[in-house]
Specification:
Belongs to the sulfur carrier protein TusA family. One of its GO terms (molecular function) is transferase activity. InterPro entries: TusA-like (IPR001455), TusA-like_sf (IPR036868). The protein is an alpha+beta fold. The protein contains two helices and four strands, in the order E-H-E-H-E-E. It starts with 6 loop residues before the first strand and ends in a 6-residue tail after the last strand.
């Protein structure tokens, strides 16, 4: 089953830390449970997104490398009250 994102962020060509910053902005516009797909070319984004998800209420159901492009799917979690 392919993941169907609610929004797509094209962060290809952006240097660290811009893919993560842009992803945080995009997630802020989504409702809890919605899925954001991010495409990035920065190799450091692999570690950045892993750390971000570990320290947030969000989930990363999948991530993969296709050639020189990294693809991440992040499901927005509920905001802490």
């Amino acid at each position: 089953m392919a993941l169907q994102p609610d929004d797509l962020l094209d962060a290809r060509g952006l240097p660290c830390p811009l893919p993560l910053l842009k992803a945080k902005q995009a997630l802020s516009r989504l409702a809890p449970g919605q899925l954001l797909e991010i495409r990035a070319t920065d190799a450091g984004s692999w570690r950045d997104f892993e750390t971000f998800v570990a320290q947030s209420p969000h989930e990363m159901p999948a991530r993969e490398e296709r050639g020189e492009v990294y693809h991440y799917w992040i499901r927005k979690g509920a905001s802490p009250s």
